[in-house]
Amino acid sequence: MTSNCVNMAGSYAATATPLETSVPGRRAPLAAGATRSRQCALLSPLRLGAGGHHRLAVSSRHRDGLAPSMPKTPGGLAWKATVAVNPAREGSLVEVELVATNTGSSSLSLHWGALQQGRREWVLPSRRPDGTRTPLSRLPSKACCGTNSSIKIEIDDPAVESIEFVIVDEAQNKWFKNNDQNFQIHLRKTDVHQGQHSATAETRRHSAERIVRKNRDAMQLLSKPAASHDKDSCNILCKKFFKLGEKEILALFLEEQGRAKVQLATNYAEQLILHWALAQKAGEWKAPPAGIVPPGSTLLEMACKSSFSEATFDGLGYQDGTEGGKETAKALLETIADLEEDAQRSLMHRFNIAADLAEQAKDAGHLGLSGLLVWMRFMATRQLVWNKNYNVKPREISQAQDRFTDILQNLYKTHPQYRETIRMIMSAVGRGGEGDALMDYLNSNLDIKVYWDTLNKNGITKERLLSYDHPIHSEPNLKIEQKDGLLRDLTNYMRSLKAVHSGADLESSIGTCTGYRAEELLKFVMEHIDDKSVEALVEALLEARAEIRPLLCGSSSRLKDLIFLDIALDSTVRTAVERSYEQLNNAALSLVLENLALSTEDNENLLCCLKGWNQALGMAKNSDNQWALYAKACLDRTRLALVTKGEEYHQTLQPSAEYLGSLLGVEQWTVNIFTEEIIRSGSAASLSLLLNRLDPVLRNIANLGSWQIISPVEVIGYVTAVDELLTVQKKSYDIPTVLVAKAVRGEEEIPDGVVAVLTPDMPDVLSHVSVRARNSKVLFATCFDPEILSELQHNEGKLISMKPTSTDITYRETAESEFLVASSPTAQDDQSGPSISLVKKQFPGKYAISADEMSLKKKLNQGEFSALNEMRHAILNLIAPVSLVKELKEKMQGCGMPWPGDEGEQRWEQAWMAIKKVWASKWNERAYFSTRKVKLDHDYLSMAVLVQEIVLGYPSKPIGLFIKQSIIFRSDSNGEDLEGYAGAGLYDSVPMDKEEEVVLDYTTDPLIIDCSFRNSILSSIARTGYAIEELYGSPQDIEGVVKDGKIYIVQTRPQM
Question: Would you say 401 and 351 are in contact if contact means Cβ atoms under 8 Å apart?
């Protein structure tokens, strides 16, 4: 590589290298300032003499001295420039004169513009040297015209503070910059003084030690995409199923962007033709207008023929590629698999194919872009071949990458609901690495073994090098005296390669985003990137992310560069936190939480967690004795948010990874941990590390202990460790078993033979699994201490006894003889619970629904459990008898409730559908199998519907469900309040109106900030609970709300 240098004299001394050598006829990239405003830039020729050596020099009153000696390149080429600013006599006129010296070039031009105070865009001065033109003009060739030529620039605008420029060698199409920055000439001495002391507006914001962050409210970082107006934004008005042999057709009548629309979907595998027409009355057939028929349809005289085709209906009953509840954009994934062989030729081919498929992915919605992400991720982690027998230039890869990322950039602008997925795709695009082999070889003092080790780690072998179109036969054979020079040149070359291959590389990303208000922050970041203490670095990284966030949410012309910069800043935060994990203090959690919020598109819940944690730190500073308890609540909310995000990723990405992985032959272990690796490589991983470290500390300060005991039972059993309770819920254990489960969601059944379930998860104490544990006399507890859980897991297969107290569990290894005594028939009789049975109800009324009247019962009794789904559909299609409607209206109005039908027929239909959904919930799978497990006759289970007005009260969850004044229809069966078996939660309660989910911010809530209010409310709840238990004579499961300081009880039942 040839290196040309430019030196600026005195206080402006600097060195520049060529930015790029371009192919003829293709313009090189502009300098940073020129990129900001290409229209506001000028090209002025430096007309040079015919001699072999020319000088560029300018005299100046405030020049500090001549430039140092000129560095020489291997070709003998050298540059030198001294710059002077000379005030002329005409008032504000300032004159700048440049005299050029050069060797071997006859076509130099100055690419320049002026900067005004407070603006970063270049402006065009009214006075310009002869021959000046805009860069968009054709570049004429220039003849040599003298041995010592100069160029004069006159500035008569007092608002202009400085001139920026780069030098262009037009004959070779090379651009020379000042260490990847523009050269800058200050026009006034005061400005020079400012420049020397780095007193720009941004620089004043930080000292040499750390930056001073802006005082901004967390909600200024809120990102909550508005509902999209594409096919995902629709309101389903009616939904019906029709039988098609053993399969079904789903018919949806929906409203989309103000237009009525009908969609049909089927799980019938063979090709189908729909013969259809319009009708105003039964039996009528009219051909539809040509403008509304599906593509490829055939219009007949009185009807239309339309073919079914594979498609993805996001969020609807049938998905393209749905298998076992797993949804994928199957057609897109199969297209990717078909094109993979061509994509393996090179990264250029892969990126071009990805660009071609982007539109199809967008049309498939979130699942389509998820499929594209999976493919790019497989590529980035080298599960797919990067280059097979094909030589390609970095420039060609860059062009293909630009084409693909330009499309992603446009999708980022137009589809904000997909931004998070698009970010992940862009972070996976173009990761290079082969050039590292030569670097490692040089750094190892020319150890050829190191060279091949690096290549092999990146999947490159001798055979692969020989298989290229232009085979590589030889390995490097260099002399030690060549090492330093080659290292310098190769470092510069690798920097250029990173700009092509690694969009998320921090240094190259910063280089492409000069000119923004975060520029000085980014300089601070690069200066402190290797600091051992990382807190100041992380603060600067986050401040930079916060500064560019408004630009990411806008439509900047350089949006792609900003996205890559934001990805790089995010990655650097994670790296810094992980390398200094043990040294970080409690305040670091706020920084890491903020970083995750800045990387998450719908981040309102995370920002509420951030506000809560900051408030907890403030409480600690003020010596509030409740701070640790409140901090623990914020930590639990944050952990729940991470779990929710992880489940979201698993639901959207894992099915695509499994299907595409099977098509491409990706190793199974890679597919199995695909979503896990996505999470580990993201911002959530470093946050999870800090949460795990702080949790036991806060529990200790708040005196919470290491356990939350949901069902306290003394047990003896053999330890078995599992990943998820869900995966073993249908299993039957032959011996008493203590399950240590990493994940418990709350909706699972407890397997037969299990005497204890221990988990780090925190299911609600009223969740299904919690109720089942209490019913079945199973020890159920959450353990918050990772060391205790690890110890229990290492007891795999051992027999242990466990004894719970109010706040702790003691356990020890137990001898077989003790187990035999505990499991003797006498001991079992002492612990046995009451037998459970249902008595068949005799209904004198007119509206009871009996399964005996349905032919589906026979199928169910024969073990065809698909009949449960058919049963629910049959109930949902019931039509209300007129007499039932009349009687229900009278009863509701007699109780002072509003009658839905008074607001129109549609409101009554909503209420009627809610009633049917409660009835149908008798036949849900979980309830059916739960009653079978305890040997209850499901035929005897009778479902009534309780009608209640909704009371809007005090929320208590991270996400609040809010609804207008409405009615809720609740299950009230004879299987919900049995002694020893609480069926609450098995059946549905359905509000007439859809709830609105609202993320709740408790940082200004009087329950948190007003100690007297908190004590009053909690004391009232305690007194109410005591009074109810005294009334019924036993512990109670109580539900209620607090509204306007009053407590409303909506339900109480014996605590099982």
Answer: yes
Could you identify the residue written with the tokens 């005409």?
A: 90
Any bridge partners for residue 265, and if so which?
250
pLDDT of residue 357 exceeding 90, the answer is: yes
How many helices and strands, by DSSP H and E, does the chain display?
32, 30
Q: How many CB atoms within 10 Å of residue 49? A: 18
3-state SS string over 275-337?
EECECCCCCCCECCCHHHCCCCCEECCCCEEEECCCCCCCCCCCCCCCECCECCCHHHHHHHH
Q: How far apart are CA 1019 and CA 599, in angstroms?
A: 42
Residue 754 falls in which region: left (phi positive, over 0), alpha (psi -120 to 50) or beta: beta
Closest CA to 129 of 95, 113, 153: 153
What pLDDT is attached to residue 993?
83
The most confident of the ranges 96-100, 349-353, 645-649 is 349-353
Q: pLDDT value at position 489?
A: 59
**Placement of tokens 């709300």 in the chain:** 1041
| CA–CA distance, 968 with 948 (Å, rounded to integer) | 5
| pLDDT recorded at residue 848 | 57
In this predicted structure, the answer to whether residue 466 has a pLDDT above a threshold of 70 is no
Q: Which of 349, 768, 873, 938 is catalytic?
A: 768
Mean per-residue pLDDT for 895-905? 88
DSSP state of 221: G
pLDDT at 72: 37
Give 440's contacts (C-beta < 8 A, 6+ positions apart): 450, 451, 453, 454
CA dihedral sign, ordered 776, 781, 782, 783: negative
Structure tokens at 1012: 């007297």
- Residue 240: pLDDT over 80: no
**Is 162 within 8 Å of 191 (Cβ atoms)?**
yes
Closest by CA position to 134, among listed 41, 34, 46: 41
**965/951 Cα distance (integer angstroms):** 8
Tokens of 558: 């350089």
Instruction: Report the Cα 165 to chain-centroid distance in Å.
Output: 41
pLDDT tens figures, 728-737: 988 899 999 9
- Examine the residue annotation and report whether 366 is marked as an active-site residue of this protein: no
| Residues paired with residue 811 on neighbouring β-strands, in sequence order | 802
Full DSSP string of 892-961: HHHTTPPPGGGG-HHHHHHHHHHHHHHHHGGG-HHHHHHHHHTT--GGG--EEEEEEEPP-----SSEEE
Residue 757's SS3 state is strand
Contact by Cβ (8 Å): 338, 375: no
Q: Does residue 426 register a pLDDT over 70?
A: yes
The closest alpha carbon to 1003, from 595, 635, 610, 639, belongs to 610
How distant is the alpha carbon of residue 425 from its chain centre? Answer: 11
pLDDT in tens, 912-957: 999 999 988 888 887 888 777 777 777 777 888 888 888 666 566 7
| Tokens linked to 526 | 């690069």
Residues 6+ apart with CB under 8 A from 577: 534, 538, 584, 588, 591, 592, 686, 689, 690
Distance CA(686)–CA(642), nearest Å, equals 11
Helix (H, G, I), strand (E, B) or coil at 316: coil
Distance between CA atoms of residues 790 and 787, nearest Å? 5
Does the pTM surpass 0.90? The reply is: no
Nearest to 877 by CA among 857, 849, 845: 849
Residues 6+ apart with CB under 8 A from 703: none
Nearest to 56 by CA among 93, 18, 124, 110: 110
What pLDDT does 464 receive? 59
The one-character DSSP state at 1033 is T
For 254-303, write each residue's pLDDT tens digit: 766 556 778 888 877 777 888 888 887 777 888 888 767 787 788 888 88
- Mean pLDDT computed over 609-637: 91
Return d(Cα 566, Cα 595) in angstroms, integer: 10
Radius of gyration for the alpha carbons in the chain, expressed in angstroms and rounded = 36
